[in-house]
Amino acid sequence: MNMCAALMLFQHAYDPQAPVHGAPWLWFSIIKILVVFTVLMVTIAYLTLAERKISAWIQDRHGPNRVGPRGLAQPLADGLKNIMKEETYPSAAYSPLFILAPVMSFIPALITFAVIPFAAPLPTRWGLVDMSIADLPVGFLYILAIASLGVYGIVLAGWSSNNKYALLGGLRSSAQMVSYEVSMGLAVVSVLLLSGNVSLSSIVSSQVKTGWYFFPLLIGFFLFLVAAFAETNRLPFDLPEAESELIAGYHTEYSSMKFSMFFIAEYSNMTTASALLTTLFFGGWAVPFWTTVNTAPWHWWKTVITLVCFMLKTGFFLFLYMWIRWTLPRFRYDQLMSVGWKVMLPIALAYLVVMAGAVLALDAAGIAPTARLGGFLPTYWTLLGVLNIVLAVLVFVVLDRGRLVSPASARVGPVELAELRAMSTRRPAPVQGD
Hints:
With about 425 residues, this protein is an all-alpha fold. About 65% of the residues lie in helices and about 0% in strands. The chain contains 16 helices and four strands.
């Protein structure tokens, strides 16, 4: 009885609004790992069905509809098929790395989601439980570091297969990821300038107080969005898997579950990138215009509402991924590299300098991030937003004119283009005897 009474007193000593610690923290961490990764794997499975349904809707056809009601059991059938299929090992492949490559692509894609906060803290009798698996103080740097490891799996898959098409796909992917990682990192520095922290939870909290970063960092959002498409090898940046040129790219020689692991990694990277876009630029789990839900004291219903809000925002970007895939053609490879090094990188560097100067000028003028214009609009955010609109006009209207995004076509001047058109319209002289 004395031990039971002491245990009850020990449990009631916790503050529900204080962070959980000790043994309860360990148990909650284990539960979050099991739940989050189970939900993530199920979501990835059904994203394959969603993509096939969305593509069918865009192309005015049905899509999968035979297995289960409205085709809902199709991912289960596909998974069972891949498990039951025979594993193939090409005779010329280097087996150790050939087997290791899918694992090296699969694991980093999954564990990058661990630092993303997906809901408001959950109060329990043992204290507040953060709704992220690991609330690291360097969360975004962790994502950049771990996500960059996935390219090793792709490169090893291309090299170890001893197939020229797979090798070309692996080399393309490595060059593409290196090219666009730089722009992605520079685009997020502007977010760090406004939030003053690299912790994703702190970035969400900052947006709760001051507003979403989408408007005051419009150019940064666009740069990050384009780089996210390139980093996940999705159209119009799917050159490593270009079916018309490389059969299937780096996974040409793979079959069964090893083949599926590359697609699990791709859809997992899509999910992480969509969640990161939501967290960095659209307030994360914060519900727009509902301060009561977004701030303490915390309750379980706030956790549920913010979780639904986070899922809706992330789902929108996942839909955008699929929409773009079935709408745009892919770049040529020289265009892809030109966009990365001649367009994205200079714009990202110039944008970082401009935003750092703007933030410094606002701080020198004594304008606080929480100041309001007319009692409603945030002054700080409004001024930065107007600056970004001006920059967007300069970038997309004045500077482009069809020359930056399509550098290959810009090499021909108006005179040369007229001569080429004249040559193409000339009819050849008839040959004697015809």
